[in-house]
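ingest -> validate -> predict -> emit
validate: passed (alphabet ok, no gaps, 71 aa)
predict: started
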Amino acid sequence: MRDIIIINKVNGLDVICRHCGNTESPKTPFFNRFRLEGTGKNSSTVRCLNCQTAVEIPLNELSSLYYHYAC
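emit:
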């Protein structure tokens, strides 16, 4: 099971860190409590800025706006 969960919604993404409880439901294409790092060809790393927990996720789980900023 992943430490960071990404839930796709109509108005954007909900991002939840299971390790520390940090959550974000952004209304803009920028993360405030999480950071996208090291985007590869098919995956990216999402890091919680509170507890530094990181998880690698497939790029298809990101919305088109986040994908644009990740690449």
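The first strand starts at residue 4 and ends at 9.
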